[in-house]
């Protein structure tokens, strides 16, 4: 695997570690209800903040860096591919289960970038989704690493 991919995967594993640690710290407060979301203690809220931050960073890293670089590395990428084109390619390669799921992950990432102080129901919904769907991003790290390694084994 090339140096750039190794660096990207190393960074992804840092995000993964932080996500997993945060989830461990907040699991007793999961799932969030609107009432609980409005009244989180600062310490617990800070763990949710780490989850949100690392979820967004990992989603960005995968979408903007790792996926295009892996596809280029295995000879399936091009500079002209859109995000959707890349997801379609990964679905065909059976690396991701669904393009639609990945579009939803990006939409969730965008929602997490905003605060909804007057809508605790939305806050709870988006935080619960981040908790649940972070596992999809983490699985993608391993699956994309394996795809790149498979190319290495064939070379």
Tally of individual helices: 6
* Category from helices, strands and their pairing: mainly alpha
**Mean pLDDT across all residues, rounded?**
96
Q: Would you count the extended β strands for me? A: 0
Distance between the termini: 11 Å
Helix/strand order, N-terminal first: HHHHHH
Largest sheet: none
Q: How would you describe the shape? A: elongated
Spans of at least 5 consecutive residues whose pLDDT stays below 50 are none
Helical content class:
over 70%
Notes on the structure:
The chain is mainly α and 155 residues long. The chain has one domain. The chain is 77% helix and 0% strand. The protein has six helices and no strands. Helix 1 (3-26) packs antiparallel against helix 3 (42-73) and helix 3 (42-73) crosses helix 5. The protein is elongated, with a radius of gyration of 17 Å.
Task: Describe this structure in a few short sentences.
By secondary structure, the chain is mainly α.
Topology:
Blueprint: H1 3-26, H2 34-38, H3 42-73, H4 83-92, H5 99-112, H6 120-154
Helix pairs in contact: 1-3, 1-6, 3-4, 3-5, 3-6, 5-6
Which features does this protein show?
155 residues
